Structure formats: structure tokens, C-alpha cells
């Protein structure tokens, strides 16, 4: 009697014992993390009880201090808009420097260094440094978001420049145009829709980030949120959180609408 061969998918492990060994090692690693972080049921239960107390004091939300809310919202919008504008103006030349197909090697290395430096540190770390440098307030927040925008915007735009059609660039170059004219008439028209799209997307990101960096004193609605937590005004805190959700949702809608119009 002949046996029918049954096909089995190939194993990703060279040896059969490696699969169970990896799962056991992963389980041991997770268990060690739980033990090292002191995660236990009693601690979680106490945390849930305290969270219930906080939520109970937060309802209903208090919108009576709407002047503080409005001030924080305006600051966040100003920070997001100015940092996006500055990041775009500074990011375009950096992106050109960081594109290998339009920049000589020394300039390319410098441009990539700027991009890497702008993307190295989290915005909270940058905000702490700038708050120490220029003091509390929206100026530190605007500068923080500008630094963040420089790395993000320049990297994505440089990658787009490296994918442009070389034929259009060469057509401009054979007319005797200089490097500046080649960039203006051969490169910029091909990446202009991408610049607009990235600018709108970056503004949406900055609107959300402005609510975070304010916690370290960099202005915006985040500072108002931190102050309300410090005073245990949980009902006002809930009002601020609801406003932040509304602002971010509105920014997301505006960003999506603008990107659809661009495309």
C-alpha cells in the first residue's frame, strides 16, 4: 500500500529544537521584564482605584475658564503655523543639499548630517533644552517644532528629489542654465506638489506635538493642561482634553482635505 506524501510548509528554523527554544527564551524575557518592573495584581488594582477617583472628580468637565482654554488654543495654533513655515523655508535648501543627484559629495554629506541631527532627538528633549535656553513660553515651543520639522521635512523632500526625472533637468541644463536655474526650473516644478503636501502634513503633526511639548513649559495648550493637573483641577483637565481632541480632529480633517485638493 503506497503512502501519499503530505506537503508541509518549510520551517524557518534550521533545526526543529530552535523554534520551541526561541519561544521559551521570549517567554522568559517577558517574565523577567514583568518581575523587574514590579508588575503585580495588587499594584494594578490600586492604580485602577485611583484612576476611578480621578475620573469621578473630572465629570462633568468645567468649561467656565474658557479664556485660559482659548489662550492655549491660540498659542498652539501659532506655534504649529510658524514652526511649519520656518521648517519649510529652512528645509527646502537642506533637502537640496541632502539629495545626492543634485549636490556634490561634500555638500551632500553636510546636508545629510543636518538631517540626521534634526531627527536624532525627541521633541521633548529638544523642548527641555530650548526652555532652558530661551525660557518658558511659546517661543521655546515654536523653535522646538522648527527643529523637528527641519529633520522630518528635509529627509522626505530629499528622497523625493532623488527620484525626479533626469530628462527634464538635463533639458534645462543644455540651454546653458546655471545651477540655480536648473534647480528652479528643472527640479522645483517636479517636487512642488510634494512640498505642498509635506507642508500640510507637517502642520498637522505640529498641531498635535504642540499639545505635548507644553508639558515641559514650551507653551500652548499643553502648558494649560499641565497646570490644571498640578492644581488637581480634574474637571478643568477633562475640558482641556476634550478641546485637544477637537483641535487634533479638526486639524486632521483640514489636512486630509488639503491633501485631496493637492492630489
Describe this structure in words.
It is a single chain. By secondary structure, the chain is an all-alpha fold. The protein has a single domain (66-262), classed as MetI-like (MetI-like fold), CATH 1.10.3720. The protein is built from 10 helices and no strands. The chain has helices at residues 18-36, 41-58, 66-97, 105-120, 123-134, 138-161, 166-173, 179-213, 221-230, 234-262. Helix 5 crosses helix 6 (138-161).
> From the coordinates shown, what is the CATH architecture?
Orthogonal Bundle
Question: How many discrete domains?
Answer: 1
What class would the helix/strand composition place it in?
mainly alpha
Low-confidence stretches: none
Please tally the helical runs, counting DSSP H or I stretches of 4 or more residues: 10
- How far from one another are the termini? 66 Å
Radius of gyration equals 26 Å
CATH topology: MetI-like fold
Helix content: over 70%
Name of the level-1 CATH class: Mainly Alpha
Order of helices and strands: HHHHHHHHHH
Q: What is the molecular shape?
A: flat
Number of strands: 0
Largest sheet: none
Amino acid at each position: 500500500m503506497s503512502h501519499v506524501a503530505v506537503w508541509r510548509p518549510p520551517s524557518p528554523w534550521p533545526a526543529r529544537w530552535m523554534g520551541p527554544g526561541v519561544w521559551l527564551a521570549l517567554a522568559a524575557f517577558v517574565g523577567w521584564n514583568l518581575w523587574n518592573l514590579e508588575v503585580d495584581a495588587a499594584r494594578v488594582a490600586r492604580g485602577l482605584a485611583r484612576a476611578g477617583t480621578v475620573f469621578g472628580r473630572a465629570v462633568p468637565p468645567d468649561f467656565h475658564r474658557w479664556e485660559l482654554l482659548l489662550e492655549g488654543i491660540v498659542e498652539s495654533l501659532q506655534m504649529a503655523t510658524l514652526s511649519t513655515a520656518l521648517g519649510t523655508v529652512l528645509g527646502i535648501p537642506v533637502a537640496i543639499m541632502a539629495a545626492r543627484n543634485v549636490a556634490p559629495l561634500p555638500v551632500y554629506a553636510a546636508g545629510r548630517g543636518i538631517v540626521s541631527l534634526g531627527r536624532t532627538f525627541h521633541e521633548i528633549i529638544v523642548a527641555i533644552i530650548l526652555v532652558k535656553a530661551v525660557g518658558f513660553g511659546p517661543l521655546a515651543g515654536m523653535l522646538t517644532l522648527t527643529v523637528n520639522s527641519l529633520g522630518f521635512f528635509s529627509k522626505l523632500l530629499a528622497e523625493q528629489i532623488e527620484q525626479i526625472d533626469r530628462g527634464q533637468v538635463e533639458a534645462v541644463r543644455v540651454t546653458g542654465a546655471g545651477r540655480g536655474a536648473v534647480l528652479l526650473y528643472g527640479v522645483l516644478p517636479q517636487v512642488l506638489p510634494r512640498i505642498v503636501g509635506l507642508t500640510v502634513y507637517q502642520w498637522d503633526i505640529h498641531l498635535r506635538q504642540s499639545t505635548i511639548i507644553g508639558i515641559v513649559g514650551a507653551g500652548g495648550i499643553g502648558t494649560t493642561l499641565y497646570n490644571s493637573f498640578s492644581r488637581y483641577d480634574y474637571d478643568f483637565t477633562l475640558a482641556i482634553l476634550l478641546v485637544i481632541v477637537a483641535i487634533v480632529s479638526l486639524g486632521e480633517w483640514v489636512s486630509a482635505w488639503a491633501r485631496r485638493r493637492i492630489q
